[in-house]
Amino acid sequence: MATEALAGVEPAIRPRALFGHPPGLTVLFMTQMWAEFSYFGLQALLVYYMTQHLGFSQAKSSMIYGAYGAAAFFSPFFGGIIADRWLGRTRSVVTGAVLMMCGHFAMAFEPLLFPALALVALGNGLFMPPLAVQVGGLYADDDPRQAQAFSAYYMGINLGGLLAPLVCGTLGELYGWHWGFAAAGVGMFAGLVIYLRFRHLLPADPPSRSQTQADARAVLTGKDWGNLRMLVAIIAVVVLFRIGYEQSGNVIALWVEHQTDRSVDLFGARLEIPATWFQSINPLLIIALTPFLMRHWAKRAARNGPANLLARMSLGCAIAALSMVVMVVAAALNAKTGRPVGVEWVTAYFVLLTIGELLVIPVGLTLVGALSPVQVAAMAMGAWYIAKFLGSLLAGAMGAYWGIIPATSFFGLGASSVMIAAIFLFFLSRSRAYSTPVYLSR
Predict the structure, then answer these.
(1) E-assigned strands of 247-327?
(2) Which of 96, 117, 150, 396 is deepest in the core (most CB within 10 A)?
(3) Beta bridge mates, 270
(4) Which pLDDT does position 14 carry in this prediction?
(5) What is the pTM of this model?
């Protein structure tokens, strides 16, 4: 992605901070962490809240869950356009944070379920694209730290995702659903305070298109259009990955609750692990594995030169498909014995899914940041989330068939979808149209 220097805004030279990166990365890391704490706090409770407290059927709850997740990740495309054209990055982030905070607090009131979900979805759309674009704006175009920055930023996302089920989930299950939703709102407020307090450490907003009256179509080069076409192809394929991946918070949550033996012996006492805690396995593994992968990729790049990032994404999809094969086996065992299976099955699922995710999502974010022209950077970042929108929507529709078709067939369909994504990405990686931007192998 072209930096703000190409838009007439010179990036400020700032002292190095956390792990040799600009202090602004820490600000964005913390802001995103608390935003994800609020988002995943609501997500960890939502299906259980609808089925147990509101009395919704499983099929209806799955459809609502899928539609909400789809809306939350379709809105970033339009939020990116609004940020590029009118609001600017800073005002877009602040407006989105306020809307999400209000939505989380509104979840404490049962009649406001759908307005609250709408506020969170709309706020997410305004918040996410410009905040992610500001990560790239901290670095010069040829700075090798930029790719590492997106991996670190993704760790912030998952640190929030790790804490959310433990805090919001525990409050919701033990003390009442409304306490869990209120905790999510407090988390969003904390992120907003951090962002506003340390805004001076972030890059200045480039002029919006409404200020410059510039038409992006007139200034995009042939290379820019080629990069955008490549991004569209990547996004289309990642939809298939998302169809299977998004079941981790939907059907897998129900599997953990009903088909998994969650009891453990602790100091002679028989305790049951709260179902929401299993949602923390994925972010915990991401936080643990990301530094290792960053060091491994840096050493490999030093030895072998630029990496083919689409091939890396293809491998990630194949590993994620294997995680669903594990669930096919677990479902077959459950059907044979008629008893809940051990926690090792769902744990193995999350381990393989997480490794696959780390080879797909942060790498995809890096490609979006590298290939997006600065004139439409927030919009392009918003377009990346279209894959999550479509994947969530289709995953929700697929989840409605849980209990109707055999669990082995259900997980087999998810594995097939992700494996098809792996195959497409493999062939795309070998296409002549694909060329790796210079710093992506760092």
Answers:
(1) 263-266, 269-272
(2) 96
(3) 265
(4) 43
(5) 0.73
pLDDT of amino acid 209: 55
Q: How many domains does the chain have?
A: 1
Q: Which two tokens stand for residue 64?
A: 């609502």
**Positions of the chain with pLDDT under 70:** 1-20, 141-147, 207-218, 268, 301, 305-306, 432-442
Q: What is the pLDDT of residue 208?
A: 57
Quote the domain boundaries for residue 313.
Answer: 21-200+218-263+274-429
- Whole-angstrom Cα distance, residue 351 to residue 285? 7
The angle at the Cα of 72, spanning 354 to 234, to the nearest 5 degrees, equals 55
As given in the structure block, the two tokens for residue 33 are 């962490």
Cα angle 145, 147, 153 (rounded to 5 degrees) comes to: 95
The predicted-structure confidence for 330-343, as pLDDT tens digits, reads as follows 999 988 888 888 88
* pLDDT recorded at residue 210: 52
pLDDT at 141: 63
What's the CA gap between 429 and 442, in Å, rounded? 18
CATH number at residue 89: 1.20.1250.20
- Residue pair 184/41 in contact (Cβ under 8 Å)? The answer is yes
Q: Is residue 424, in this structure, part of any structural domain at all?
A: yes
Answer yes or no: are the C-beta atoms of 76 and 381 closer than 8 Å.
Answer: yes
Give the closest residue to 41 by CA, choosing from 135, 198, 203, 178.
178
How is the chain split among helix, strand and coil, in percent rounded to 5? Answer: 80, 5, 20
Kindly give the residue spans of alpha helices, DSSP state H, lying in 6-57: 23-48
pLDDT the model gives residue 355? 93
Q: Which two structure tokens, joined as six digits, stand for 364?
A: 């995809």
Asked if 114 contacts 56 with a C-beta cutoff of 8 angstroms, the reply is no
The closest of 115, 117, 91 to 39, measured between CA atoms, is: 117
What's the rounded Cα separation, in Å, for the pair 371 and 131?
17
Nearest to 96 by CA among 107, 82, 115: 82
113 φ/ψ angles, rounded to the nearest 5 degrees: -55, -55
- Is the distance from CB of 52 to CB of 105 less than 8 angstroms? no
Which ranges constitute the DSSP H helices of 138-215?
145-164, 170-175, 177-197, 209-212
Asked if residue 7 is part of any domain, the answer here is: no
Crossing angle of the two packed helices 407-429 and 222-245, in degrees rounded to 10 = 160
pLDDT for position 87: 84
Tell me which residue has tokens 């998004």: 246
In a domain, 207, yes or no: no
Residue 6 forms part of a structural domain:
no
The per-residue pLDDT for 222 is 76
Bridge-partner residues for 402, per DSSP? Answer: 405
